[in-house]
Amino acid sequence: MKFVDEAAIVVVAGDGGNGCVSFRREKYIPRGGPDGGDGGDGGDVYLLADENLNTLIDYRFEKSFRAERGQNGQSRDCTGKRGKDITIKVPVGTRILDQGTGEVMGDMTRHQQVLMVAKGGFHGLGNTRFKSSVNRAPRQRTDGTAGETRDLQLELMLLADVGMLGLPNAGKSTFIRAVSAAKPKVADYPFTTLVPSLGVVRMDNEQSFVVADIPGLIEGAADGAGLGIRFLKHLERCRVLLHLIDLAPIDESDPVENARIIIKELERYSEKLAGKPRWLVFNKLDLLGAEEAASRAESIAKALGWEGDYYIISAANRDGVKALCWDVMSFINTQPKEQPAEEAAPEKVEFMWDDYHREQLANPVEENEDDLDDDDWDEDDDDGVEFIYKR
Asked: What is a single molecular function from GO for this protein (predicted)?
């Protein structure tokens, strides 16, 4: 299935139902008074995180989602039925942004997490609400309000503990194939990896971590060169970054300059990402002798001003890979997971007597007298219900 990590959708909550103007008319009770019911609230729109999904491709084709409108009020003090909510499933790791305001509405970071993204309209009030000692036959009612409409940007961000960085052909995909069951494509030409991939590294029966491989970066990626930096967002939730440096580039480029390109593009993309723990991993030991590889790695680290430890491995032969993975596992065990912003819990709010309806009571809509019978209180009527409402 094609990997799609961005999609734009429109969500529309249901409108609230209108209030009803109705009067009770029964045999022997010619003046029973008002009995118009309230409308129903409009349906809400929710997002639901589903761990069984791994792409947003469905929302490249279906872009509009609308909840049900609340029903209008009825006579006999019957309240209109509430509109049905709709639930949209998205992959775990999806970030939701409001395109209109730029607001980050939430991050779907766990299975079955629910987030309300559009609130349904409030119900209108029936004429029963307006009866009083001085207004015994009210013809006032209120309309329901419109539901929220939002233009949403969905961004899927992979949830991984470790992120791989490097130029094309640095050996990132080969490394993931060596340490996990993932099988990303490997070849001897640049940009073999076109989409991010995940691999689970199992150290023993109780310990494991997830590593993410993204397409390689090149100079000018922040300006759109190569595949750009759109895939760097998948590393934002990683706890450590492995910066792979090719000790023997096939194009005979300078490994020091190659490393500086990655660092520069990271800084241009995000200070937060550039500040994450980053380990230097020198790859392709198998193409050089052990002494020459150690000498090159030392000179590169010195040129970069690197003061920490570094690793020399061969992803193809798996030399030094196991020791690196155990050190990564130990580091991860000491680093707490990054906690997402506090989630906004789904709301189920009753709007029977909220501030909105207090304002509506103060400024009701009055039915046009031409639309009503002149015989509303005709005592010759034997029975029946006078039923007046707006559709």
From this structure: magnesium ion binding
